[in-house]
């Protein structure tokens, strides 16, 4: 029962009624007692709002997420999870988690990251997944478990097969010392591509990562076999592509390529696009990781940037360990 006190406060009362009876069982009166349960009702309402907000976050999360009850039955699955596993919502809700784990194991009610597990899709396909779990507690008891799922193949980047240009040109040789990252920050876009195309036509395995349309790059520089990765949000079957928001895929893609080749060359053009979709610190960290990979190989990397988009401090932070392609003694032809 809701009441309003003399001071104007709203209260919620819980009433108990006891009948008073005489020796013959006849009701002679009642005793009514009321308990103020306002704090409990407020707590319940706040908990409901918190649960609704959590469910909303799970539904719109950009990563596959499921929620289990204390018996490890699936009670919530967002669209990403259903896409990953191949189920419709009504097909997966209520099922035990063991039905989507290939060895039928249950998960521990604990907070864990970077667990590797094999998931079983509806069509019977098994996929290696990286999962993280977060326990939902209620008065120190296990109430449920939030589980995020990621297909490991999507975390590893692209597997690019090296390919050598058929019509190699060896008359005018050009040399860039291996194990170094070179920066072209003069604003001359053609210079980086000219060097890259010349070196792959000399027979070196190359990888181009670009914001430009790969078809135009191939046509302009007569590159026919060298793999080109397109930095774009538009997926295409003609060229391998990486969404600029998936920065985490770039380093493993480059690393995998570098491990497959000897005396290779990588060109990155589109750092400005990556910075638009990610924070500058993350992009610089990606370049640091990539430079570490280059330094322990006999390959080299060319980074093409527009210096006008950086302030002076960030520009120097980015290029402090790189060699400049504008220096006359950097390369010999």
TrEMBL record:
<dbReference type="InterPro" id="IPR008553">
    <property type="entry name" value="DUF835"/>
</dbReference>
<keyword id="KW-0418">Kinase</keyword>
<dbReference type="Pfam" id="PF13426">
    <property type="entry name" value="PAS_9"/>
</dbReference>
<dbReference type="InterPro" id="IPR000700">
    <property type="entry name" value="PAS-assoc_C"/>
</dbReference>
<feature type="domain" description="PAS">
    <location>
        <begin position="50"/>
        <end position="114"/>
    </location>
</feature>
<keyword id="KW-0597">Phosphoprotein</keyword>
<feature type="domain" description="PAC">
    <location>
        <begin position="1"/>
        <end position="49"/>
    </location>
</feature>
<protein>
    <recommendedName>
        <fullName>histidine kinase</fullName>
        <ecNumber>2.7.13.3</ecNumber>
    </recommendedName>
</protein>
<dbReference type="GO" id="GO:0004673">
    <property type="term" value="F:protein histidine kinase activity"/>
</dbReference>
<dbReference type="InterPro" id="IPR000014">
    <property type="entry name" value="PAS"/>
</dbReference>
<dbReference type="Pfam" id="PF05763">
    <property type="entry name" value="DUF835"/>
</dbReference>
<dbReference type="InterPro" id="IPR001610">
    <property type="entry name" value="PAC"/>
</dbReference>
<dbReference type="InterPro" id="IPR052162">
    <property type="entry name" value="Sensor_kinase/Photoreceptor"/>
</dbReference>
<dbReference type="InterPro" id="IPR035965">
    <property type="entry name" value="PAS-like_dom_sf"/>
</dbReference>
<keyword id="KW-0808">Transferase</keyword>
């Amino acid at each position: 029962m809701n009441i309003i006190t003399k001071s104007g406060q709203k209260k919620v009362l819980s009433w108990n009624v006891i009948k008073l009876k005489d020796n013959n069982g006849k009701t002679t009166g009642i005793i009514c007692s009321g308990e103020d349960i306002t704090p409990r009702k407020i707590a319940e309402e706040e908990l409901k709002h918190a649960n609704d907000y959590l469910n909303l976050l799970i539904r719109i999360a950009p990563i596959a997420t499921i929620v289990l009850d204390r018996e490890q039955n699936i009670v919530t699955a967002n669209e990403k999870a259903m896409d990953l596993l191949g189920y419709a919502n009504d097909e997966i809700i209520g099922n035990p988690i063991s039905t989507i784990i290939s060895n039928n194991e249950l998960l521990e009610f604990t907070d864990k990251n970077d667990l590797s597990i094999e998931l079983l899709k509806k069509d019977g396909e098994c996929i290696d997944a990286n999962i993280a779990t977060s326990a939902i507690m209620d008065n120190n008891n296990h109430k449920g478990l939030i589980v995020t799922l990621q297909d490991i193949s999507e975390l590893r980047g692209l597997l690019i097969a090296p390919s050598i240009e058929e019509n190699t040109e060896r008359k005018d040789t050009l040399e860039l010392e291996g194990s170094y990252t070179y920066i072209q920050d003069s604003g001359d876009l053609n210079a980086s591509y000219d060097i890259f195309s010349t070196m792959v036509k000399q027979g070196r395995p190359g990888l181009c990562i670009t914001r430009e349309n790969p078809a135009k790059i191939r046509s302009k520089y007569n590159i026919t076999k060298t793999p080109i990765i397109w930095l774009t949000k538009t997926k295409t079957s003609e060229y391998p592509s990486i969404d600029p928001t998936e920065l985490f895929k770039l380093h493993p893609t480059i690393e995998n390529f570098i491990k497959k080749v000897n005396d290779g060359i990588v060109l990155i053009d589109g750092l400005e696009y990556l910075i638009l979709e990610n924070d500058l610190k993350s992009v610089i960290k990606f370049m640091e990781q990539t430079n570490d990979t280059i330094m322990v190989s006999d390959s080299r990397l060319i980074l093409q940037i527009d210096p006008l988009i950086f302030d002076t401090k960030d520009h120097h932070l980015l290029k402090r360990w790189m060699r400049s392609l504008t220096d006359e003694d950097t390369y010999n032809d």
